[in-house]
């Protein structure tokens, strides 16, 4: 879903969508799909931030790119990426219980 498609959605609905995407990604990870790759492997131009174009090389990350971009600048920083990985890990751990 593009950012243009999200403009008419309330912040509450946008957050709910982000949670659903993260939950779906965690479920896929539990089902045996590959985990998110390292930040370095996604950062193809080594500018220390991930663009939507770079995210497109990993379907799982591409699906959760918008929810990973916490500050809404159109890029995912190393800190934002680490937060996404941590959230997915926590979700996966809860699902295992």
Mean pLDDT, as a whole number?
A: 81
What is the overall number of helices?
Answer: 6
What's the alpha carbon Rg, rounded to whole Å? Answer: 13 Å
CATH-defined fold name? Recoverin, domain 1
Structural class by helix and strand composition: mainly alpha
Domains counted in the coordinates: how many?
1
* Total count of strands: 2
Highest-level CATH class: Mainly Alpha
Structural notes for this entry:
There is one protein chain. The chain is mainly α and 97 residues long. The chain has a single domain (3-96), classed as Recoverin, domain 1. 63% of the residues lie in helices and 4% in strands. It contains six helices and two strands, in the order H-H-H-E-H-H-E-H. It has helices spanning 3-6, 11-30, 39-42, 52-55, 59-68, 78-96, and strands spanning 49-50, 76-77. It has a two-stranded antiparallel ribbon. Helix 2 (11-30) packs across helix 6 (78-96). The N and C termini lie far apart (31 Å). 16% of the residues are buried.
Concise account of the structure shown:
The protein contains six helices and two strands. With 97 residues, it is mainly alpha-helical. The chain has one domain: Recoverin, domain 1 (Orthogonal Bundle).
């Amino acid at each position: 879903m593009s950012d243009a498609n999200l403009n008419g959605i309330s912040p509450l609905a946008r957050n709910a969508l982000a949670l659903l995407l993260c939950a779906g990604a965690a479920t896929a990870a539990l089902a045996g799909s590959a985990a998110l790759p390292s930040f370095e492997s996604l950062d193809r131009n080594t500018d220390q931030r991930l663009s939507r174009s770079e995210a497109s090389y990993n379907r799982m990350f591409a699906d959760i790119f918008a929810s990973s971009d916490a500050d809404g600048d159109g890029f995912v920083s190393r800190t934002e990426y680490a937060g996404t990985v941590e959230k997915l890990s926590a979700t996966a751990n809860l699902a295992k219980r």
